[in-house]
Design a protein that fits this description.
This protein has 192 residues and is mainly α. The chain is built from two helices and no strands. Helix 1 packs antiparallel against helix 2.
Length: 192
C-alpha cells in the first residue's frame, strides 16, 4: 500500500543518512591518519637530513685524522731512522721520548679513526632504515588517500540517493493524503 511505501521510503532515507554519517566519519578519520602520516614523514625527512649532515662531518673528521696519522707516522719513521743512525746519546733520549709520544698519538688517532668509521657505518644504517620507513609511510599515505577518495565517491552517491528519497517523500505524503481523502469519501458514501 501507499502508506507502507511511504514508511519504507522514510526508513530507507534514514538508513542512507546513517550510512552517510558513517562514511563521512570514516573519511574524516582517514584524513586525520593521512595528516599524521605526513607529519611523521616530515620528521623522518628532517632526521635524515640531520643524519646526513652528521655523516658528512664525520667523513671530514675521518679524512683529517687520516692526514694527521699519516704525518705522524712519517715523522715517526724519520725519528726511527735518526735513532738507528745513532746520533749520539744526548739526543737519543729526547728522540726516543718523542717517538713514544708520537706512537701514543698515532695509536690515539687510529682509535679515533676506528670510532669515526664505526659511527659513520651506524649512521649509514640509520639513514637506510629511515629511507625504508619513509617509503613505507608514503605507500601507506597513498593507500589512505585512495581509500579516502573512494569513500568520498561513495558518500556522494549516497547523498544523491538521500536527496532523491527526500524529494520523493513529499510526493508520497501527498499521494497518501489523497488516498486517505478518497478512502474517507468512499466510507462516507457507503455509510449514507
Amino acid at each position: 500500500s501507499l502508506e507502507t511505501k511511504l514508511w519504507q521510503a522514510e526508513e530507507d532515507a534514514q538508513r542512507e543518512n546513517l550510512e552517510n554519517v558513517r562514511l563521512v566519519t570514516d573519511v574524516d578519520r582517514l584524513r586525520e591518519q593521512v595528516e599524521r602520516s605526513r607529519g611523521v614523514e616530515q620528521e623522518r625527512v628532517q632526521e635524515l637530513e640531520r643524519l646526513g649532515h652528521e655523516l658528512r662531518k664525520l667523513e671530514v673528521a675521518h679524512a683529517e685524522l687520516q692526514g694527521v696519522n699519516q704525518t705522524r707516522e712519517q715523522r715517526l719513521r724519520e725519528l726511527e731512522a735518526v735513532v738507528q743512525g745513532d746520533q749520539g746519546p744526548p739526543e737519543l733520549a729526547s728522540l726516543q721520548a718523542e717517538i713514544r709520544d708520537l706512537g701514543a698519538q698515532r695509536d690515539q688517532a687510529q682509535a679515533l679513526e676506528r670510532a669515526a668509521a664505526e659511527l659513520a657505518k651506524r649512521r649509514e644504517r640509520e639513514l637506510a632504515e629511515a629511507g625504508r620507513t619513509i617509503r613505507e609511510l608514503r605507500r601507506t599515505l597513498e593507500e589512505h588517500a585512495g581509500i579516502a577518495a573512494n569513500l568520498r565517491g561513495e558518500v556522494a552517491v549516497i547523498q544523491v540517493r538521500v536527496d532523491q528519497y527526500s524529494a520523493s517523500v513529499p510526493k508520497l505524503q501527498e499521494r497518501l493524503r489523497d488516498q486517505q481523502k478518497r478512502s474517507a469519501l468512499r466510507d462516507e458514501e457507503t455509510s449514507e
